[in-house]
Design goal:
Elements (H helix, E strand, L loop, with lengths): L7 H4 L9 E7 L8 E6 L3 H7 L8 E8 L10 H10 L9 E2 L2
Antiparallel strand pairs: 1-2, 1-3, 2-4
């Protein structure tokens, strides 16, 4: 029987370099008054948020930036947060915007 060299990486692959992050921000745009945009990124959250405002203006206020990691090391996304908020009865008038 042929033996195969097995390394520890075969059992415990290295963790990816991505840093899953959940963020929420409030926009000053009248269409989003009283709402928070809940999103997900694997990059620097402040950079991702700024990309959503390409004019270079700063018409938003960051309310939350937190790791999207559970205690067991698994990750979750904004879709998980969106489902949770809807299940709790938080109003979701459009896309990723919530009244909270």
């Amino acid at each position: 029987m042929e033996s195969k060299n097995v390394s520890i990486i075969d059992f415990f692959p290295p963790r990816p370099a991505a840093a899953p992050t959940i963020y929420a921000y409030a926009s000053t745009h009248p269409d989003h008054a009283g709402l928070l945009k809940v999103g997900y990124t694997e990059r620097v959250a402040a950079d991702r948020i700024a990309e959503q405002f390409p004019s270079g203006l700063n018409p938003y206020r960051i309310e939350l930036i937190e790791p999207a990691m559970r205690p067991d090391g698994s990750a979750f996304t904004d879709h998980d947060i969106h489902r949770y908020l809807r299940a709790k009865g938080i109003k979701n008038p459009t896309h990723e915007w919530f009244k909270c």
